[in-house]
Design goal:
This protein has 183 residues and is an all-alpha fold. The protein has eight helices and no strands. It has two domains: 78 residues, Rna Polymerase Sigma Factor, Chain: A, CATH 1.10.1740.10; 93 residues, Winged helix-like DNA-binding domain superfamily/Winged helix DNA-binding domain (Arc Repressor Mutant, subunit A), CATH 1.10.10.
Length: 183
């Protein structure tokens, strides 16, 4: 296989493997479907340009999340003059990397095991209200509105609880983040 054909094959593999995760990440942060699709197109365009410029993408998923996060930040700055909230981006990046794919590589399995042990431990430290809203939104995919209707707790209160939970998790998982993302 020629080198350009091999690069295209690698790109196709990256796109097919990670498109869904990056799309979910973008669409949770951008309300308009069209704007989200524009951002996604730009993310994967940059991936294509990276290969054209011979800049290797060693770890594709964290790189894709970083590009997406930067494009979303630019989008909000241009549209509303607001900064993109960074309450979830780093934590989501870590979790997405660890859940990216099933692996049989011993080092990946080991890293995943260590991460989940630490994650469960830090999650258990949270007050029950914060832990519950985090688990319901992140693990069960429930919206704040659904949780609010069921529990009777104001949406803003739920958002605040989630924010505190994410801050606590980020603080205690910083070392793990640096190890995973190679920073």
């Amino acid at each position: 296989m020629s080198e350009p054909a091999q690069k295209n094959s690698e790109q196709d593999n990256i796109v097919s493997r990670y498109y869904g995760r990056v799309a979910a990440f973008v669409h949770r942060r951008v309300r308009s479907r069209e704007d989200g699709e524009d951002i996604l197109q730009n993310v994967f365009y940059r991936l294509a340009r990276t290969d054209q410029l011979a800049l290797p993408v060693d770890n594709a998923l964290p790189w894709l999340f970083r590009v997406a996060r930067n494009l979303i930040t630019d989008f909000w700055r241009k549209r509303k003059g607001l900064l993109f909230s960074d309450t979830e981006d780093d934590l989501e990046e870590i979790v997405s990397v660890l859940l990216a794919e099933e692996t049989e590589r011993p080092e990946d399995v080991y890293l995943q095991r260590i991460f989940w042990e630490k994650f469960r431990s830090v999650l258990a430290e949270l007050p029950s209200e914060q832990r519950e809203v985090f688990e319901l939104t992140e693990f069960q995919g429930q919206s704040y509105r659904e949780i609010s209707e069921r529990s009777g707790v104001n949406v803003n209160t739920l958002l605040s609880r989630k924010r505190y939970a994410v801050q606590h998790l980020r603080k205690h998982l910083q070392e793990m983040r640096e190890m995973i993302l190679g920073e």
